[in-house]
Predict the 3D structure of the following.
Amino acid sequence: MFSLLNLQSLLGLVVIVAACWGLSENRRAFPWRLALGAIAVQALLVLALFGIPGSQVVLAAITGAVDGVAIATNEGTKFVFGYLAGGDQPYAVQNQGALFTFAFQVLPLILVISALSALLWHWKILKWITLGFGFLFQKTMGLGGASALAVAANIFLGMIESPIVIRAYLDKLTRSEIFLMMVVGLATVAGSTMVAYAAILSPVLTNAAGHVLVASIVSAPAGILLARIIIPEKPGEGGAVADYNSALKYDSAVDAIVKGTSDGLMVVLNISAVLIVFVALTALVNVMVGGFSVFGGPLSVERVLGWLFTPVAWLIGVEGSEAGRAGWLLGVKLTLTEFVAFIRLGEVPAGEMGERTRMLMTYALCGFANIGSVGITVTGLSVLMPERREEVLGMVWKALFAGFLATLMTAAIVGAMPASIFR
């Protein structure tokens, strides 16, 4: 049965599309067919992954696989770091909760999943899955072969790794196609971080791993649509055809594991550095403005962001009583990265946030669209195509806006669905 909350989410969907149309470089070229197709693909993917009989078994298997990887990773982490990573404690522990350390419980998962992803790519398992999604995006949304492959790769690889898959075709992409690739990269997450997010949310959200996986998949069509609205493809341009012989190759299974681990280490170092800097800068601003009292409490970045994003959270379908906290989480994601936002979401006790709001926020937060990713995007693409660096710089803030809204669009699509399909 549909409710007012479902209609609320539909209103949010309209507002999101309208906001991007307002920034469009050619408002007359609104892609009506693509809009209907993208929304239909999103809805069908959600229904297929949650509503089809037996789908819950698949999601439960995904959750079990995530739990297995997390347990195995923990064993390796304890071997290296001992009691610091949850091993046998040399002293009595009064507060077990204090043993959780982000650096030891979450970041090592990225190393293991990065190595596994590289191994699955070498064995062509992940490659064929990516090709399947690429074919879907090519046929349903009219993307060129190279763009379709890059978008599909973004679902499983990082926003910089996926362009490597089509590196031989980067110089052939149009401005609109490069923008699309940037937006989808910011709207989705890498497979290496999906497991980390699921591990953070599993204690408070049923089928957390399934929701995180679905969020990254479903946000890809949203990113395509919003990118095409803001920078439409000009008639007669685009459609570069890829032969799908990817530049991403490994010499052997061992080579894949070693290089995958090395790539994962770079991701871990980048995440760690960005988190340290942005959390520190936010704390610095809070110190500077903390002396001002507003509405009965000290002023802070978190409170300001909560006020700004409260109506945004309401538009995606969050109940009014919980929109303030949900809006604050959106602000945390934009400034402090989605990692911090997921940690804050996982820290909210089960009794203080409804299951619907927690689920919608999982989708809304599941993307790389944050201020720190702007620098990563510019740096990575400048290395891959230095001759087009100025183009990238000119589009990156629009890409951040579209990528951020793409995850909100996904949350709105989920919020518009009957609640019964998620049970």
About this structure: The longest strand covers residues 293-294. The two ends are 14 Å apart (CA to CA).
